[in-house]
Write a structure and sequence with these properties.
The chain has three helices and five strands; from the N terminus they run ββαβαββα. With 91 residues, the protein is α+β, with helices and mostly antiparallel strands.
Length: 91
Amino acid sequence: MKEHCPMPSSKKNKLYALSTCVWCKKTKRLLDKLGVKYEVIYIDLLSGDEERKAISEVCRWNRNETYPLLVINNKKAICGYDEEKITQEFA
């Protein structure tokens, strides 16, 4: 299941998450608080080709496939809940 948020044309941010993950929920709340536009992709709610494609994308940024994974403008990623890094990136 994807949750779509409008994206500014200059940035496309994706949050790969698990629907039951506390740290993923905290990351989502922080992004909302900072006013960041992003798309949430809940890996555990996908299946088939859609799931394989999403996991492949996650592994491209994080071989350990841990969540949350925030991909910023398809140029860098923040693995795990890191309030300081996320805030610095979007402040």
